[in-house]
């Protein structure tokens, strides 16, 4: 999805849920999200904070997660902004009062999978996902997972799936 399509999706979201960002006023998990220069990341919409804020709105959370996911994850790659998004997702997923918390945990598992290093000797994987040197966001995400190792370990324990737990733990360098 190109930048124009992402921005159009966010505009549709805001039209459908005009009060969604009101739910996040003062939430500590989002402190600093508006300070990030999101539009400086290639193909990243500037309105990422709106989607992060809307994750706190009961009525809008599912759609906010869908639009956010489509804005930062593609079919076979992550947006370069993902390392900046991760700390906010960790904090939101750590709050049991956040609507759709289980969906955020699932999103973190997906991001952890996207962050895995690609074996340069596996031509099919390199062809499909690109080499690690072409996608530095993978290593950057692994570094963010490792930087937040205690939070990631706690989040992993909250997952029902042993595979999901292992994926998050591995992303943080715990396995």
Bin the helical content: 55-70%
Low confidence ranges: none
Alpha-beta classification: mainly alpha
Q: How many strands, what sense, and barrel or not for the largest sheet?
A: none
Strand content: under 5%
User: What number is the mean pLDDT?
Assistant: 89
Q: What overall form do the CA principal axes indicate?
A: globular
Global Rg: 16 Å
Listing every helix as H and every strand as E from the N terminus to the C terminus, the arrangement reads HHHHHHHHH
Number of discrete helical segments: 9
What can you tell me about this protein's structure?
By secondary structure, the protein is mainly alpha-helical. The protein is 57% helix and 0% strand. The chain is built from 9 helices and no strands. It has helices spanning 3-16, 48-54, 61-72, 82-94, 101-115, 123-129, 136-147, 149-157, 162-171. It starts with a helix and ends with a helix. The mean pLDDT is 89.
Question: Could you provide a short overview of the structure?
Answer:
With 175 residues, the protein is mainly α.
Chain-wise SSE layout:
Elements: H1 3-16, H2 48-54, H3 61-72, H4 82-94, H5 101-115, H6 123-129, H7 136-147, H8 149-157, H9 162-171
Keywords:
about 55% helix, single chain, about 180 residues, mainly alpha
């Amino acid at each position: 999805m190109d930048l124009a399509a992402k921005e159009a999706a966010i505009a549709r979201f805001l039209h459908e849920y005009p009060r969604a960002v009101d739910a996040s006023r003062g939430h500590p998990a989002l402190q600093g999200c508006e300070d990030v220069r999101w539009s400086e990341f290639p193909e990243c919409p500037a309105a990422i904070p709106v989607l992060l804020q809307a994750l706190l709105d009961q009525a809008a959370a599912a759609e906010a997660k869908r639009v956010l996911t489509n804005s930062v994850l593609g079919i076979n790659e992550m947006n370069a902004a993902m390392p900046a998004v991760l700390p906010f997702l960790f904090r939101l997923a750590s709050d049991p009062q956040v609507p759709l918390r289980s969906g955020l945990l699932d999103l973190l598992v997906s991001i952890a999978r996207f962050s895995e290093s690609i074996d340069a000797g596996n031509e099919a994987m390199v062809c499909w996902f690109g080499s690690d040197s072409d996608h530095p966001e993978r290593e950057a995400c692994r570094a963010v997972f490792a930087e937040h190792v205690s939070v990631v370990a706690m989040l992993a324990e909250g997952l029902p799936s042993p595979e999901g737990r292992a994926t998050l733990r591995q992303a943080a360098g715990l396995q």
